[in-house]
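#struct-help
A.M.: can someone run this one for me? Single chain, 100 residues.
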Amino acid sequence: MRTLEEQLQRRPVDRERVEGLVDDLRQRVRAARLRELRERLDLTQVELASELHISQNRVSQIERGDIDKSQVETLRRYVEALGGSLAIEVSFGDERYILA
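D.P.: on it. Structure tokens below:
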């Protein structure tokens, strides 16, 4: 039986792939929180989609974390419909800036 160290030497961890998977998981967790907020307000995806004038499928995509193709305006309206406000933050190394 090999030790973990021996296994890692034989088959090193692809750090870039791991970081990508971690980022994806974080995005999905954040999106799940949006779904929880919507459900707490007793809104269905169909009702929210109707209020936002978007498809139910788009609401579902947002709640699954698929926001790469989303327009900022759509995300802003989604968040505001749940009673929140959208903040956009960018980071450059240790520096962070709020854009909106």
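A.M.: thanks! The CA atoms of residues 39 and 45 lie 9 Å apart.
D.P.: also worth noting: The first strand starts at residue 89 and ends at 92.
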